[in-house]
Design a protein that fits this description.
Elements (H helix, E strand, L loop, with lengths): L1 E10 L4 E3 L1 E6 L2 E7 L10 E12 L1 E6 L1 E2 L2 E2 L5 H10 L5 E8 L4 H16 L8 E2 L2 E4 L21 H10 L4 E6 L6 H10 L3 E4 L6 H10 L3 E2 L15 H8 L5 E4 L7 H10 L5 E4 L11 E5 L2 E6 L2 E4 L3 E2 L6 H11 L4 H7 L2 H7 L16 E4 L5 E6 L2 E2 L1
Parallel strand pairs: 1-5, 6-9, 9-10, 9-11, 11-12, 12-13, 13-14, 15-16
Antiparallel strand pairs: 1-2, 1-3, 3-4, 5-21, 7-8, 17-18, 18-19, 19-20, 21-22, 22-23
Helix pairs in contact: 2-3, 5-6, 8-9
């Protein structure tokens, strides 16, 4: 069956296509044209979205859970809950993200996740494309919600144990680059095809540049769990904002980073290096109350997730709202905000040949966005979910 989708705009990797004609067959994109260049083709079904923008589905590279489940449970139920929830918020793919925990808990969770990730994802669900290790190789002073007792010095041996438990289903790892052994670990992980992100760090600008030279490609939730910017020692943050080569994550919920600072971030980072994430935890999609982030007890009030006295512990953000917020806070065009949640993370994580862009032959995974960025519909494999 052929489905014809028409709208006002279509987001491309570098711009927009006006008055697009998107033809879908057997779950894949068969053709893309502009109405100025082609007549409407024959199709079995035509869905028109006047005034709307078609964009690739989003790719969240940093998410811990939702709907009362944490991915570190390592169960099919936990992962499938996330798989079902995310398309309702425009996400077609993601990296389940782990937390610092006791060694045995980490390895047990990774073994469970490996079994789940090896199985095919059901139609209409978001696809987990690999794991993000957020910890345990993090700074004690910038640990955020990660428990002090379980933090470890960078260790190639334990990274390899994690790799083996996860059966190689690892795509991204966060490391504090100033820790002894961090640069060797970054080089080793990179040699295995793992992307390394620097974060949860009290490191200097020199530490950040050394990590980049060793292979680091991104920064974890920029501004959060980083040394504050100083005009004489800009620290990790200064390097992140000034390095055009480095990708940089941002939690754009208006809680983690003030909207005025979001605007500064957008001015500092090249448009193709900004990455929007949620850092969502098990309370996402749920009412206020008490939840878990890994092994941690987290309380949520008015959507703000904290642990201990008042330490932020992930978020309850959905990526559709992150995109809308970014366009509003940073005053950037909607296509630029959409690319920060789709093509940019796809390039960073090494999936640009399969996701993050609407291209002939690929799966017809796309969002329909209103002029304000509101999510009107999400299609996975050419079917509205």
């Amino acid at each position: 069956m052929k489905t014809l989708i028409t709208a006002a705009h279509l987001v491309t990797p570098t711009g927009t296509l006006p008055e697009p004609i998107l033809l879908v067959e057997d779950g894949h994109i068969l053709a893309i044209h502009s109405r100025d260049a082609a007549e409407l083709p024959q199709a079995d079904l035509h869905r028109d979205y006047p005034g709307a923008t078609l964009a690739p589905t989003y790719f969240d590279v940093h998410i811990h859970g939702c709907c009362g489940h944490d991915v570190m449970e390592g169960t099919a139920e936990a992962v499938e809950t996330v798989n079902r929830f995310l398309p309702k918020h425009g996400v077609g793919a993601y990296l389940p993200t782990t937390m610092t925990a006791p060694k045995d808990v980490i390895l047990r969770g990774l073994a469970g996740l490996a079994r789940v990730l090896a199985a095919p994802t059901a139609p209409g669900q978001a696809r987990p494309l690999g794991l993000h290790f957020e910890g345990p190789f993090l700074s004690h002073s910038k640990r955020g919600a990660h428990p002090t007792r379980d933090l470890l010095a960078p260790s190639i041996a334990f990274f390899d144990a994690m790799w083996q438990a996860a059966e190689g289903h690892v795509r991204l790892m966060t490391v504090a680059p100033e820790l002894p052994g961090a640069l060797e670990l970054i080089t080793h992980a990179t040699s295995r095809g793992v992307r390394v992100s620097i974060g949860h760090s009290d490191g200097s600008s020199a530490d950040a540049h050394a990590a980049i030279a060793a292979g680091a490609v991104s920064a974890t939730h920029t501004f959060n769990a980083m040394r504050r910017l100083d005009h004489r020692e800009p620290g990790l943050l200064g390097a992140v904002l000034s390095s055009d080569a480095l990708y940089a994550e941002l939690v754009c919920d208006g809680i983690h980073v003030d909207p005025a600072v979001v605007q500064l971030f957008a001015r500092a980072k090249p448009a193709d290096r900004a990455i929007l994430i949620t850092d969502a935890m098990s309370a996402a999609g749920m009412p206020d109350g008490n939840y878990k982030l890994g092994e941690l007890d987290v309380r949520v009030t008015a959507g703000r997730a904290v642990t201990g006295d008042d330490t932020l512990a992930g978020s309850t953000l959905t990526l559709e709202n992150g995109v809308r917020n970014y366009a509003q806070f940073a005053n950037v065009p909607l296509p630029q905000a959409a690319r920060a949640a789709s093509s940019n993370p796809a390039h960073m994580a090494g999936f640009a040949d399969s996701i993050g862009a609407l291209t002939i032959g690929r799966f017809a995974d796309f969002n329909v966005l209103s002029a304000s960025g509101a999510l009107e519909a999400t299609y996975l494999g050419g079917i509205a979910v």
